[in-house]
């Protein structure tokens, strides 16, 4: 089994560049299926396992998809199949984002029902209620969800019980080809929602209000392919901010957008970290002594759940009592047990974790429980005494491009090795060799 081996104690310094956002590119590639003519050219695409998975989903439905040089070319002008291949859908929950585009374009869509995962049960009831309001019939059974509509979907007024990112995206995509106007109230306001709305508008849709709590979409009769570049990954940027902070380092994070990271920046500043905009990025200076703080995860612009475990690694090294409250996912504390293997002192109380710091973190063999936990354990290893070995790297590769090498370039003592202890770089030339990457992932 592959491992990342980290020797703690190096201060990070230098420059790192963040990639396009995973959580923006997946819905954008799904949305490209709405085009009945022309090619979509999507740039600044990160070379991630999830991108290969969504590309395979589309290819298996008869779309033409090419991924090279961080650019995805999608042509969906020929007739698509409306059932997504379960083999790939099961690898990634974001595959449910094909439902909205297929339903709107063909009046039919079928995918394997996504199950729960390591961070919670993750139902899709809000997506389905939205489709029903627009005229679709929903059948759930035998492990599948199937949607049918006679003729075009119609516009509807939809109120989301909670501002779900995926439901907002799916409904927005379906509404882009529906007859009439759809409003989504109490919708998600994440930067990735705005990026998707911008792409839809380039395809000929009329979407207004993205980034606020009400989005209005006037349906178009047809949409065409468009060129679009993906926004920077705010979670990758936040992860490198924590890497600089936890090691008392000095790192310039290029291509990071501070407007998307307000809540993270504010909490890091409370902990004593110095942060300022520089050029097209953010400079982060870690203090000698980190201070405790509290965070509560919330929908944007609140503190992102996708940064919760990385902040936990930081708080383990901060002076005082820190409390993390997770309100978005009911089960996103699996990494606590792994941190305990590293001698972390923390207590789970309901949806909160109480951390007494600074602990005396020691290197240990730990397993990634989800993709952000993978990064968080590596971050903890950067500061721990001795050697940390992190396994289950398939999670990491879903969301971080070349994480170990990027940290190594900043001065970390880190390497990725295979079962024989030989160095590996799974990302070398990947964009030219998607199939071998998928093979690699299924092995790791
Ligand atoms: C690919 C992608 O963009 N993933 C992100 C997206 O996931 P995702 O879109 O799955 O997250 P949601 O915003 O939908 O989920 C938020 C909460 O709403 C609940 N819920 C959601 C839909 C629904 O129909 N019913 C329901 O109850 C979920 O169980 C969860 O408790 O937003 C999450 C919250 O910021 C991030 O952690 C994920 O990284
Ligand atoms: C939870 C995440 O992603 P996904 O919704 O794709 O599982 C994440 O990016 O941290």
Automatic annotation (TrEMBL):
The modification 2-(S-cysteinyl)pyruvic acid O-phosphothioketal is found at residue 117. Phosphoenolpyruvate binds at residues 22-23. It comes from the Bacteria. Keywords: Cell cycle, Cell division, Cell shape, Cell wall biogenesis/degradation, Cytoplasm, Peptidoglycan synthesis, Pyruvate, Transferase. InterPro entries: Enolpyruvate_Tfrase_dom (IPR001986), Enolpyruvate_Tfrase_sf (IPR036968), MurA_subfamily (IPR050068), RNA3'P_cycl/enolpyr_Trfase_a/b (IPR013792), UDP_GlcNAc_COvinyl_MurA (IPR005750). GO terms for molecular function: UDP-N-acetylglucosamine 1-carboxyvinyltransferase activity. Pathway: Cell wall biogenesis; peptidoglycan biosynthesis. It is found in: Cytoplasm. Belongs to the EPSP synthase family. MurA subfamily. Cell wall formation. Adds enolpyruvyl to UDP-N-acetylglucosamine. This is UDP-N-acetylglucosamine 1-carboxyvinyltransferase.
